[in-house]
Amino acid sequence: MASLAAASSSVAFAGSCSTKSSAPLSSSSSSLSGFRVAAPFSTVKPISVRGRSIVAQAALYPNYDLSSFKFEPIREAIVAREMTRRYMTDMITYADTDVVVVGAGSAGLSCAYELSKNPNVNVAIIEQSVSPGGGAWLGGQLFSAMVVRKPAHLFLDEIGVPYDEKDTYVVIKHAALFTSTIMSKLLARPNVKLFNAVAAEDLIIKDNRVAGVVTNWALVSMNHDTQSCMDPNVMEAKVVVSSCGHDGPFGATGVKRLKSIGMIDKVPGMKALDMNAAEDAIVRYTREVVPGMIVTGMEVAEIDGSPRMGPTFGAMMVSGQKAAHLALKNLGLPNALDGSYKLGESHLENLVLASADDETSASA
């Protein structure tokens, strides 16, 4: 297992993408099924693939004998017990937690990532889809590239996502590169648990404050009308961050539920597209809308009737970061909004600037 954990590789493409380089190791390389593979501790010379120069760096590979490969034996019951025990332990652990983030799209993932930097904050992420990421697996109209307007690219620098730099924006060659990168870093942290294929069916309200969420398997939630009563479960939290996205079957469910129980007056829905107005508004109005519940991402546009932003993603990232620091503030912990947090990274300085407007001035 140690050799598998240590195995890693990094490929840098010469061209338009902005990447950070590191010194290669030294020895020889071999070929496997037409692909050039670096041997352990090797100096790898650049090779040409489809006219592009590729350098394999710091590659360590386990010594598999692929001609007669065989797995270690295991009992099927052990597999079942390992999955069940660990999942049930997570359910017990996060039945009462610090922050629940509802929705694992680009805003929710960015929020959870920022929160997870504090090892004392336990974060549960609820995502109704089997596949977290929301709309961030693709750009607009099912295209691959993701456009991020500056200065939100500083967040990409922090998590290590390469991009093609332009004057006022950057372009990630495939949106999935952002989503997979932030998920891999976030989910490796010990204070984070993603509950995917789980729906937040309702809110827990105590003393006019949001105190958690009501949960159920997503497939159960989608079939309440076709089956007999299938009661839900619960997850208490000190703070709930609602990042359910724009309106849809599972969209904007947090603010729509607040309206239905009379905690807010209306949810007008987002206005027509205006990228320049929309992204600033989404970050500016990311806020605690009722005690215990913070709204981030496109759900902000739904509650405020602000313009939709279209296929740009910077506001999702920075809105998620701001929501995280609002949650930290709510928990009485150091944060970037009241000056108690040491601004160690440049993107947090921009976060403070983005939140300087009076949050209470958001349109009704």
TrEMBL record:
Query: Which enzyme class?
Result: transferase
Annotated cofactor note: Binds 1 Fe cation per subunit.
CC cofactor: Fe cation
Q: What does the PTM comment of the record read?
A: During the catalytic reaction, a sulfide is transferred from Cys-229 to a reaction intermediate, generating a dehydroalanine residue.
**Positions contributing to substrate binding:** 107, 127-128, 135, 200, 231, 246, 298, 308-310
- Tell me a GO biological process for this protein: thiamine biosynthetic process
Q: Name one Pfam family in it.
A: Thi4
Record localization: Plastid, Chloroplast
Q: Which residues form the signal peptide?
A: none
Keyword annotations: Chloroplast, Iron, Metal-binding, NAD, Plastid, Thiamine biosynthesis, Transferase
Query: What is this enzyme's catalytic activity, as reactions?
Result: [ADP-thiazole synthase]-L-cysteine + glycine + NAD(+) = [ADP-thiazole synthase]-dehydroalanine + ADP-5-ethyl-4-methylthiazole-2-carboxylate + nicotinamide + 3 H2O + 2 H(+)
Task: State the source organism's domain of life.
Answer: Eukaryota
**Stored InterPro entries:** FAD/NAD-bd_sf, Sti35, Thi4_fam
Principal localization reads plastid
Q: Is Chloroplast found in the keyword set?
A: yes
Q: What is its EC number?
A: 2.4.2.60
GO terms of molecular function: cysteine-dependent adenosine diphosphate thiazole synthase activity; iron ion binding
PTM annotation (2,3-didehydroalanine (Cys)): residues: 229
Q: What does this protein do?
A: Involved in biosynthesis of the thiamine precursor thiazole. Catalyzes the conversion of NAD and glycine to adenosine diphosphate 5-(2-hydroxyethyl)-4-methylthiazole-2-carboxylic acid (ADT), an adenylated thiazole intermediate. The reaction includes an iron-dependent sulfide transfer from a conserved cysteine residue of the protein to a thiazole intermediate. The enzyme can only undergo a single turnover, which suggests it is a suicide enzyme. May have additional roles in adaptation to various stress conditions and in DNA damage tolerance.
Q: How does it assemble?
A: Homooctamer.
Q: What is this protein identified as?
A: Thiamine thiazole synthase, chloroplastic
The species this protein belongs to is Ceratopteris richardii
Lineage of the native species?
Eukaryota, Viridiplantae, Streptophyta, Embryophyta, Tracheophyta
